[in-house]
Amino acid sequence: MDDLEVLFEFQKEGEATESEVDQAYALTLEKIEDLEFRSTLNKPEDEMSCTLEINAGAGGTEACDWAAMLYRMYLMWAEKNGYKVSLLYEQSGDVAGIKSVSLEVDGEFAYGMLKGENGVHRLVRVSPYNAQGKRMTSFASVFVHPMIDDSIEVEINPADLEWDTFRSSGAGGQHVNKTESAVRVRHLPSGIVVECQQERSQHMNRDKAMQMLRSRLYEKELEKKRAERDKIESTKMKNEWGSQIRSYVLDDRRVKDHRTQYQTAQTEAVLAGDLDGFLKAFLMWDGSGN
Fold first, then answer.
1. Confidence check: pLDDT of 168 > 80
2. Distance CA 201, CA 210 (A)
3. Phi-psi category of 44—alpha, beta or left, where left has phi over 0 and alpha has psi -120 to 50?
């Protein structure tokens, strides 16, 4: 701001051009908007990495294909923003696409940036799987959890855990299907189930599954606090199956977030990972993360 004021004085005295002042003004405005946006990421969990889970809704192949499209969208967003992504679990669709997939997005403020993606995502398009070329609607749910580290304690009683092992499926080379290295753990009091097949050894998968479980339990506590606030702020949309947070209408060239009302006609760019407009609109709409 000080530099801009000095430059403006220079311009009045003929020592700087109007275009130089305009350029400095645009840069200053960009910095202020970025600072305002960053100030919304003020919760302890916002700085953390996160797990992102995508589940196909009802609708068979069409819904599984939509889940795979979302998977690609988030991978490309993470790549563009310098985040490291690890595949934790994947269940392929019967014909095509993905029934369910879990990712770890590693990097500063990954959870803070992606927490607004929690909810149901709706796709409307002329289906490539429909012989009559009909317009179809598909749903997929997205869940984002902070990947807590050792700075946050979550106590888990080993007696409350039920473990299973199974053979990994999907990509991973020859080793992945030979041994029962994949693990599944159920937390009996909460009913939370976590599966992990990322690592080559069962022991490493158990460690990763426990970290994921601690993160989910921590997120559950956050949800309780958010629910208490929601009783007061009852106008906000609930995150339930069937109340979609965002619609992607491809033939009308429109992607719209139903909470913030932010929308764009750049459907291809959005599906290629250009999500920053939606992410920032959510955080500026409600900095508390609800």
1. no
2. 14
3. alpha
